[in-house]
Amino acid sequence: MQKTLNYPLERIYAEITGPEDAPPMVLLHGWGSSAHLMRPIAEAFQTDYRVYALDFPGHGHSPPPPEPWGVPEFAHLLEMFLQHHHLTENVTLIGHSNGGRIALFLASCSPLRESIRRMVLISPSGIRPTRRPSYYVKTAIARTLKAPFQGLPTPLREKGLHWLRGTFIWDWLASSDYQQTEGVMRETFVRTVNFYLTPEHLRQINIPVLLFWGTQDKAITYEQMKKLEEALPDAGLVLLENAGHYAYLDNPHQFLQATRYFLNHS
Q: Based on the domain organization, do 50 and 86 belong to the same domain?
């Protein structure tokens, strides 16, 4: 994560609440979300913590990155954010979905990993799922459609791929999250969702991690959560009944109760 990012930190939107001398807590939203949807967590803990909730580039009030990014770039930006705010010890990270993926990567290999004391992750992505046959069919079709453009000079190739991405069949192949992106965020989405944490990454995370999964979650599977729990050296999984992918909003009482207990005993 040593690549220099052409993204001034002053362009990052952040909501900062709580006493200045309180322990730091950083909230990381998921793909297509923002700090706004993390406010219930911030409001619940802002009495005892200095809470930082930021909008990642291309989300909320933060403008997109100047070029397509992947998880290492987002993690490096978070690293810069922590350094800028002098958050170099006793940091609690709370991440939802893609925010959890970024948190896991940061905690596994960042020079600042020692500053992170513990993590609370709600349906974190980044664990490779078991794919249905339809996924591989769509992937093969997409690869075939892109093949004629790969040998063209760069300007023609980009124009051709841009045209392809605007066709009806590409919309059918693409996920709804992909369809909602545009410009540089489309390639950023592709790079991000196709990034998976390795067992080597996860073995490096030796801090306490509390995992949450909503029993009605359609984006992340129970199998993925169990794989993550078993791969992390010190992790526990809490199931939130009748909650979906935004389990912390669907079942806030159980989420906050378990999180408070974890923070007070870890």
A: yes
Residue 238: strand pairing partners = 212
- Whether 23 and 50 have beta carbons less than 8 Å apart is answered as yes
The secondary structure of residue 126, as a DSSP letter, is -
The last residue of a domain, from among 143, 172, 193: 193
Closest CA to 209 of 85, 111, 88, 126: 126
Instruction: Name the residue range of residue 224's domain.
Output: 9-128+196-265
Question: What are 192-242's pLDDT values in tens digits?
Answer: 999 999 999 999 999 999 999 999 999 999 999 999 999 999 999 999 999
What's the predicted TM-score (pTM) here? 0.85
- Give the integer Cα–Cα distance in Å for 40 and 215: 21
Residue 78 lies in a domain: yes
DSSP 208: -
Judge whether residue 103 has pLDDT over 60.
Answer: yes
Chain center to CA of 5: 18
Q: Give the separation between CA 135 and CA 141, rounded to whole angstroms.
A: 10
Separation CA 135–CA 156 (nearest Å): 29
CA–CA dist 108, 186 (Å, integer): 26
Residue from 32, 68, 36, 33 nearest 195 by CA: 68
In a domain, 1, yes or no: no
DSSP 8-state code for residue 67: S
